[in-house]
């Protein structure tokens, strides 16, 4: 977009103070500009599609702070075009190369996914999380898979924290049942922990929290905390909307302290990658978490059937080329579609994870009714084979405006952070011989 010579500075100033203004008129008055001038500028934004003052205000609130007088959005746009050297960034911003080093380091510390490849800086198309994934469940003392092992875990997806259709009452009840009645200590979340921003037209009207930080705080408050339980959270397309808009992985805010809101860092949450991730359950046994794109197919199971076939092909290819000694995938957990189902595709057990968000304006336009609820999955593995699986579906009816009954900025209770220890031990009947199960 092209503006008069001072518009770049003016819009940077507008971005900084817009969250504090109640109206476009107030913003124009504080900037010393005419209201019609700012209105015309907003109409030229968003690649010419324009935006309302409310959308600009929400985007400005989600935008990063200035770093030594340099707007982070300017660096993000510059690096997204192609990798840049420090000299090129220095020439663009009219800053010394030492200052550029300080700015980039500050942005990285603030959570921006900026990487250095040789002499050039780049923003990857997806956030890269270098996490050493431990086995969720304990291995045999000699490192091999157990002869027989029972494991139980919770499966859920699409909590969409920050949405007015969010269902925190159902989420807390589900987790309470899983934890107290079934002994679940591991919850697998298949994406869209937050509602995101700008994912579909008119979404701002469906949100009670618009910025990535606000939605992360809502997630910190509304996702139940248990001292001896852990969450494994995949990134979905709604979570990705903040990274797409500002280059910031808002999920990381859940791992930070927010003392001004009485919220402690959620050390019980492990962030997985975006879209898809292989999560080890036992040595040689994996669950694949997947957050696809697209809408709900006519047959709910179609997407899972097709992708299970592709995963089986990839497993066979890996074994053929020697990348792994044998196939390890046993479960496929699918989010995004807001529907619940289970079936077997060969040796792979497929789970449609459901959701904890009610009907939004988008779903009403599509004529879709979400399946609110989650699963308790109990598996018995015998020499790596999924011998027995018991899926328990826990369903809920939608509570309209349920978000209003939950104080998403409430003070966090004192929490006793305990050291993570294996759920199962090799004494007390966790491991059984083959003869004892009649195989």
Structure, described:
By secondary structure, this protein is α/β, with parallel strands linked by helices. It has two domains: 7-122, no CATH class; 148-437, 4-Layer Sandwich (Purple Acid Phosphatase, chain A, domain 2), CATH 3.60.21.10. The protein has twelve helices and 16 strands. The protein has helices at 7-17, 24-31, 35-43, 53-62, 72-81, 86-93, 97-109, 168-181, 212-222, 237-246, 302-320, 361-366, and strands at residues 66-67, 70-71, 84-85, 115-117, 120-122, 148-156, 186-189, 230-235, 269-274, 276-282, 285-290, 329-334, 340-345, 348-353, 373-382, 385-395. The strands form four sheets. Strands 9-8-7-6-15-16 form a six-stranded mixed β-sheet. The protein has a five-stranded mixed β-sheet with strand order 10-11-12-14-13. Strand 11 (285-290), helix 11 and strand 12 (329-334) form a beta-alpha-beta unit. Helix 1 (7-17) crosses helix 4 (53-62) and helix 6 packs across helix 7 (97-109). Mean pLDDT is 83; it is low at 1-5 and 408-439.
Keywords:
439 residues, 12 helices, 5-stranded mixed beta sheet, alpha/beta, 16 strands, disordered N terminus, Purple Acid Phosphatase, chain A, domain 2
- How large is the share of residues in beta strands? 15-25%
Number of strands: 16
The coarse overall form would be globular
CATH topology of the largest domain: Purple Acid Phosphatase, chain A, domain 2
Relative helix content? 25-40%
CATH class of the largest domain: Alpha Beta
Quick check: average pLDDT?
83
Radius of gyration: 24 Å
The major sheet is characterized as: 6 strands, mixed
So, the CATH homologous superfamily of the largest domain? Metallo-dependent phosphatases
N-to-C SSE string, H for helix and E for strand: HHHHEEHEHHEEEHEHEHEEEHEEEHEE
**Alpha plus pi helix count:** 12
Amino- and carboxy-terminal Cα gap: 69 Å
| Count of spatially separate domains | 2
**Quaternary status:** single chain
Biggest sheet: strand arrangement: 9-8-7-6-15-16
Low-confidence stretches: 1-5, 408-439
Structural class: alpha/beta
CATH architecture of the largest domain: 4-Layer Sandwich
